[in-house]
Write a structure and sequence with these properties.
Its EC number is 1.1.1.267. By secondary structure, this protein is an alpha/beta fold. It has helices at residues 14-25, 41-51, 61-73, 83-92, 109-117, 127-144, 153-161, 200-203, 213-221, 223-236, 274-282, 296-299, 313-324, 328-344, 350-363, 372-392, and strands spanning 4-9, 30-36, 55-58, 79-82, 98-101, 121-124, 147-150, 175-182, 243-247, 253-259, 264-268. The strands form two sheets. The protein has a seven-stranded parallel β-sheet with strand order 4-3-2-1-5-6-7, sandwiched between helices. It has a four-stranded mixed β-sheet with strand order 9-8-10-11, covered by helices on one side. α5 (109-117) links the parallel β5 and β6 (121-124). The termini are far apart. The protein binds nicotinamide-adenine-dinucleotide and magnesium ion. Magnesium ion binds at residues 152-154, 228.
């Protein structure tokens, strides 16, 4: 059998590199077809030299020509494309079998949708794309016959704990609720009064997972869990009330499914993204991921707590957006992206992330979303509102 051709959108990121690590363990089974990067183009070049992809994609055409020349000088025939069009081209290319959607944030929406519309096997890490465009995204999956496999560890766990017929609705397969686990992040026990003074470095120092900076801040604010609540509703056709967040500091149980007969199924594993990546790449088969076996004796205990929505208002805001539907999740996501970038730049304090999002959601009316233009409009309006907050506060 020929190796499967894999496009890795966001190859230079944390998920992209973990994906390439798994691919490298199975050279007869998977081949990197296209690798994309946005900053750190030297690292993209090194990845190209190692994985020899057919295509690479960079942000603009000058950088594309430079990289292509350098790769040709090194004896590679890699074609280097530029910008959003280049990303969509390698996501939908007829020779591609599977697309790892691992660009962070709204920037991943178009190429991820392009992969879905082309009917690919789509390995979804870029949760923001689904949060923004939920109904449209899932309609496109159904229309094209794309196979959507969740990479987010929690959603991958839920997928593994559900029977294959869950597409008929959770009630039809006897599911009472989904228990979405959360580590609680680096500030799980930080008193509210101290959150105003936490630094970006502290927010990015996650106790269990090593991740990109944006998702690390989202984990610290628990907006990550809020986005994941919305993600779970779309992936598994759940109502927000059917998804309960459970704080589980060890990050060993990656989520659980509670059935009407009282059975609760969980997926456990070491906190290493190569497990869900390998699961989704090989599904329905299983392959080695390089992750060490789970040592329950070393872990010894598993703890659970209810989330504290007073200290972590982002979780409450996300639940409200999930319940409001329409453009609300896209606005929540956009306001969060602006606020997190400003926090990482040292322009706003940590608790102000929630203030900015709360104000944007309060000021912008919720509208229905019928097409991609409506999603992008809501995204742009929310970004403008959030920028307005920054200006008014002289940031
Ligand atoms: P990262 O910051 O490490 O990597 C992001 C990647 O996206 C990089 O390759 C970067 O070059 C690319 N990128 C950034 N901005 C871009 C733009 N405007 N256009 C094109 N490419 C752009 O992030 P990450 O931690 O790998 O996360 C990637 C996605 O996976 C996020 O949506 C995140 O929520 C999700 N995710 C990550 C983890 C994790 O453990 N890291 C777990 C679950 C879900
Ligand atoms: Mg997750």
């Amino acid at each position: 059998m020929n190796p499967q051709q894999i496009t890795v959108l966001g190859a230079t990121g944390s998920i992209g590199l973990s994906t390439l690590d798994v691919i490298a363990r199975h050279p007869g089974r998977y081949r990197a077809f296209a690798l994309t990067g946005f900053t750190r183009l030297d690292e993209l070049k090194a990845l190209c030299l190692r994985f020899r992809p057919r295509y690479a994609v960079v942000p603009e055409s000058g950088a594309a020509r430079r990289l292509e020349d350098e790769l040709h000088a090194a004896g590679l025939a890699t074609r280097v494309l530029a910008g959003s069009e280049g990303l969509c081209e390698v996501a939908a290319h007829p020779e591609v079998d599977a697309v790892m959607a691992a660009i962070v944030g709204a920037a991943g929406l178009r190429p991820t949708l392009a992969a879905v519309e082309a009917g690919k096997k789509v390995l979804l890490a870029n949760k923001e794309a689904l949060v923004m465009s939920g109904a449209l995204f899932m309609q496109a999956v159904r229309r094209s016959g794309a196979q959507l496999l969740p990479i987010d560890s929690e959603h991958n766990a839920i997928f593994q704990c559900l029977p294959s017929g869950y597409g008929q609705g959770l009630a039809a397969v006897g599911v009472r609720r989904i228990l979405l686990t959360a580590s609680g992040g680096p500030f799980r026990e930080t008193p509210a009064a101290e959150l105003a003074d936490v630094t970006p470095a502290q927010a990015c120092a996650h106790p269990n997972w090593s991740m990109g900076r944006k998702i690390s801040v989202d984990s610290a604010s628990m907006m990550n869990k809020g986005l994941e609540l919305i993600e779970a509703c779309w992936l598994f056709d759940a109502r927000p009330a059917q998804v309960e967040v459970v704080v589980h500091p060890q990050s060993v149980i990656h989520s659980l499914v509670d059935y009407v007969d009282g059975s609760v199924l969980a997926q456990l594993g070491n906190p290493d993204m190569r497990t869900p990546i390998a699961h989704a790449l090989a599904w329905p088969e299983r392959i080695d991921s390089g992750v060490a076996p789970l040592d329950l004796f070393a872990i010894a205990r598993l703890d659970f707590q209810a989330p504290d929505e007073l200290r972590f208002p982002c979780l409450r805001l996300a639940r409200q957006a999930a319940e409001a539907g329409g453009s609300a999740p896209a606005m929540l996501n956009a306001a969060n992206e602006v606020a997190v970038a400003a926090f990482l730049d040292g322009r706003v304090r940590f608790p102000e992330i929630a203030s900015i999002i709360g104000e944007v959601l309060q000021d912008e009316p919720v509208v229905t979303i019928d097409d991609l233009e409506a999603v992008l409009l809501a995204d742009g309006q929310a970004r403008a509102r959030a920028e307005g907050w920054l200006r008014r506060h002289n940031r």
